[in-house]
Design a protein that fits this description.
- 37% of the residues lie in helices and 24% in strands.
- By secondary structure, it is of the alpha/beta class.
- The chain has an eight-stranded mixed β-sheet, with helices on both faces. A three-stranded antiparallel β-sheet has the order 1-3-2.
- The longest helix has 17 residues.
Length: 485
């Protein structure tokens, strides 16, 4: 695999792809809903049927995405591609040696060919293509412009395609030299230049440097042994993600942010929030941890054995049993997947929020993640007296749900629910519900509480003490905000 293509070749290929419609939208339209949805599940038969006519776009899809031999599409520079090691030619048929897919940025991503059941076993330095995890991280990352950005564990280079329009300078690292070669091809085909690619583990390649933004889709898979560099680090259990979190603040510029995906263990007798929150404690950064999914040990082992196309192989049972036995030895009850964000706010009183969000959220989170972090930090550092003097406004996307038996004077449950953003729901009491109805940023909280006390007959002194406690989580979660008017 070459480090780079001849200077004219990336531009020629990109022009050919665009002319043929080999883009995300073009492929989806060419395949149709059924075949495109099946392909997202790695089921290729519908896509093969949909591209059997041999038209230029169908041939490109078969060659680069489905990995089957084709007659060379017109204008494809077969000889130059073969010389670069990207295709082989046999009896007039061309076969790709890589997986080359269009990406949502308008660029292209080069990786090793997808491994499907019945294919030879993965090589240890396999370079996986862009997929769901890549898209998840790209949706999470802040859209704020950055001076220097670091893509730690770049793999096929897909995060750089998202950073290219927002960062002035980009450094991308990976422990796998084959991944860096693939990444350079991805960037060249996507028209992205000026990226510094460096080989090494964790932060070793950038020792002594600082960045405004660090992103990472790291090798987070938790397994008995590190067999594949694209997904496993060789660190014990979830130690790689722990060390990545603890080290990251040393490489952040003032005001910098680190955002990554991670897996973590659920261990019997231990709260996972304490485990992961402990990774962030002492970093000096504000932190936000979100658990998006949890799998039991068997589901987890099956997922990653399937990922390596090892289901149905002679070693499947042995590998499966070994994985479960290893989890059992550590009393593992589940494995969590989610996001971790660190922000160097400069505060001497940093705050870490750990939560679980299983619901569908508004994408991209990166459009409003800075607001989420700001709300968490500001609420934590606000005194009760400052809160009582603040002018609160209920967020414009908040709806109220009241549940109760027909004819009852009072509801049995009141829920505030966000219809945008993270779409959180919060069960509240009558005071918080009343405030949600009247807080519009015009009056400080304290006189509003006095009015509520007069209407309900409650003690104003009691409300002054209780209300800040009930409002803090609602402020931190974005149901209310402090008006600056």
């Amino acid at each position: 695999m070459p480090d780079h293509l001849p200077g004219h070749l990336p531009g020629r290929l990109r022009e050919l792809f665009l002319d043929a419609g080999y883009t995300v939208d073009g492929v989806r339209e060419r395949l149709g809903d059924v075949a495109a949805t099946a392909l997202a599940r790695e089921e290729t038969v519908p896509a093969l049927r949909a591209t059997r006519d041999g038209d230029p776009l169908g041939a490109l899809i078969r060659l680069w995405w489905l990995g089957v031999p084709v007659e060379a599409p017109g204008r494809l520079p077969v000889d130059e591609l073969a010389a670069a090691g990207l295709v082989t030619v046999d009896g007039g048929l061309v076969t790709s040696t890589v997986h080359l897919q269009p990406w949502e940025t308008g660029g292209y991503v080069v990786s090793d060919r997808k491994v499907r059941p019945g294919d030879p076993a993965l090589r240890e330095d396999h370079v996986v293509g862009a997929g769901g995890a890549s898209a998840n991280l790209a949706q999470l990352v802040s859209r704020r412009p950055a001076g220097r950005a670091l893509d730690l564990g770049t793999g096929c280079g897909v995060q750089v395609l998202h950073l290219a329009g927002r960062a002035e300078r980009i450094v991308a690292t990976d422990v796998n030299p084959r991944a860096l070669r693939m990444a350079r091809l991805s960037w060249a085909l996507s028209g992205v230049d000026g990226v510094e690619a460096r080989e090494g583990s964790l932060f070793d390649p950038v020792a002594g440097e600082r960045f405004d933004l660090v992103v990472s889709n790291p090798p987070f898979v938790i397994s008995p042994r590190g067999r594949f560099t694209y997904r496993e680090s060789g660190f014990e259990a979830d130690g790689f993600c722990r060390d990545l979190v603890r080290l990251a603040p040393r490489f952040l510029s003032p005001g910098g942010t680190c955002q990554l995906l991670a897996n973590w263990l659920h261990v019997g007798g231990e709260d996972w929030r304490d485990r992961v929150g402990g990774w962030l404690a002492g970093t000096g950064c504000d932190g936000w941890v979100v658990q998006r999914d949890v799998q039991d040990p068997a589901e987890y082992a099956e997922l990653w054995l399937r990922d390596a196309a090892e289901q149905g192989t002679p070693r499947y049972r042995e590998l499966y049993d070994d994985w479960l036995g290893w989890f059992e030895s550590m009393n593992v009850t589940g494995i969590g997947f989610g996001w971790i964000t660190l922000h160097d706010s400069g505060s001497l009183d940093p705050v870490v929020r750990v939560e679980e969000l299983g619901q569908r959220v508004e994408l991209p989170v990166g459009e409003y993640v800075d607001e989420v972090l700001a709300a968490i930090g500001a609420t934590h550092r606000l005194t009760d007296e400052e809160l009582l003097g603040a002018r609160l406004a209920v967020a414009g996307d908040v709806m109220e749900e009241r549940v109760g038996t027909p004819g009852a004077e009072d509801p049995s449950r009141i829920v505030l629910r966000q219809t945008r953003g993270l779409r959180r729901g919060a069960r509240v009491g009558t005071v918080e519900a009343a405030l949600a109805g009247v807080c519009d940023g015009d009056y400080p909280l304290e006189p509003l509480l006095a009015a509520i006390a007069e209407l309900t007959g409650e003690s104003f002194d009691d409300l002054r003490v209780k209300a800040p406690e009930g409002l803090r989580p609602l402020l931190a979660e974005g149901f209310f905000h402090i008006s600056q008017g």
